[in-house]
Write a structure and sequence with these properties.
By secondary structure, the protein is α/β, with parallel strands linked by helices. 44% of the residues lie in helices and 16% in strands. Bound molecules: nicotinamide-adenine-dinucleotide.
């Protein structure tokens, strides 16, 4: 079977763990040169090393995506090393959640910065390069929280709805330049570094009750959707929000 991302250069933010790690491994297996970006230097380097050990092409660039200069440098480093940027997967995200009346303004601002403003940075610098190339695919990680109400998700819902709006706006502005921009809206997928307590059975029960398929998703479920949006198979799809949610938003 032929490779699905032959010769493509892909940046994946939050690539050290979870969905980003799964996508990094999958994209590399499908022929992409993968640039793993993450604040987690040890984990990110390990993913790049694993890809290289398996015969793929990868590097790690330590990046805090909430710092605009670091995101600009990430894109610049990628283009200096590989000459182009075909796929920008703005996957990283960190959330602090509570019902709004109980949320501190500090936690609101933290979540908006680390889930929305950083996606704007990632899009902005990727688009500057992709506009020069007249081609590219931007993938932004939203959430079902950005589409439907989920108890206690206030700041997460606001930031991810913002990601969806930004995605559609970019699709409209940059479609004429040959650049596509889509979002993925995952349902519940066990994560590794979020501040939500996964040992809380009430939280797990609530999330599973939302999903007709009655299992949580896996990072690989989401990576498979990202691969489709990264590849030329989706070349006439832009401005779309692809739910990967076990049917949650069909209920
Ligand atoms: N897991 C879920 O249930 C779920 C549901 C909907 C949306 N999402 C979204 O999916 C994305 C990936 O989440 P995940 O479940 O894989 O989480 P995860 O905690 O397993 O991994 C997130 C990765 O992002 C990195 N990261 C966090 N902040 C960063 C920063 N400022 N700069 C660089 N890297 C940073 C972390 O170090 C980590 O490697 C996030 O945007 C999240 O909001 C997750």
């Amino acid at each position: 079977m032929s490779l699905r991302l032959p010769g493509k250069v892909a940046v994946i933010t939050g690539g050290a763990a979870g969905q980003g790690r799964a996508a990094a491994l999958l994209f590399a297996r499908e022929g992409a040169t993968v640039v793993v970006a993450d604040v987690d230097e040890k984990g990110g380097q390990a993913v790049a090393d694993d890809i290289k050990a398996a015969g793929g092409s990868a590097s790690f660039v330590g990046t805090d995506v909430t710092d605009e200069d670091q995101v600009a440098a990430l894109v610049e480093t990628t283009v200096d090393a590989h000459g182009r940027l075909d796929v920008m997967y703005n996957n990283a995200g960190l959330v602090r959640m509570a019902p709004i009346a109980d949320l501190s303004t500090e936690d609101w601002e933290f979540t908006i910065s680390s889930e929305l403003t950083q996606v704007y940075y990632g899009c902005k610098y990727a688009l500057r390069q992709m506009r020069r190339q007249e081609t590219g695919s931007v993938i932004n990680t939203a959430s079902t929280s950005g589409l439907v109400g989920i108890p206690g998700h206030g700041p997460h819902a606001a930031s991810k709805a913002g990601v969806i709006g930004l995605t559609r706006s970019i699709a409209v502005d940059y479609g004429p330049h040959g650049i596509r921009c889509n979002a993925i809206a995952p349902g519940f997928v066990p994560f590794t570094k979020q501040t939500v307590d996964l040992s809380n059975p009430q939280f797990i029960d609530m999330m599973l009750a939302l999903q007709p398929l009655k299992r949580s998703g896996t990072p690989e479920d989401v990576a498979a959707a990202a691969l489709f949006l990264a590849s030329d198979e989706s070349s006439w799809i832009t401005g779309h929000v692809l739910t990967v949610d076990g049917g949650q938003t069909a209920m």
